[in-house]
User: Fold this.
Amino acid sequence: MSTPLRRVLLGTPQPVTPRLLWPLVGLTALAVSAVGYASGLVTVSGGVVWLPAFAAWIGALGAAVVGYCRGGALAGWAVTAAALVGHHVSRAVSVDSLGERVAFLFRPDALGWYAAMALLVGVGPFVLGSALRWGADALRGAPGHTARE
Assistant:
């Protein structure tokens, strides 16, 4: 893999943001989404839910933070996917037996759907966060962001 592609997908190593931070951000997004829906704090008005709005907003915010902190696009996608899967986890609570809950949680069609939606929902905020970081660095006069005359 080329260096620029690797940098976009995996991010640039930063001394302030260790690699363990992004899985923790993803787990936090999953927990916030799942608890929000399961507790009734956030409700779905009914009908077929193609994209849970609260989970999508949580995931988009997480992807923007990952982009701003120079994390990789894969980390931004994973944080968004975790938030969307949080909605799925909250729905699994209503299933009767433990075996059915586990089967419901790992349904390939649902996980594939959330993965695709995470790609659509997370790319824009990730790019926006990266652009904001690039602009902030340019205004600050960071190395590699000099004004051209």
User: Anything to note?
Assistant: The chain has a mean pLDDT of 84. Residues 23 and 108 are 22 Å apart (CA to CA). Residues 19-40+50-139 form one domain.
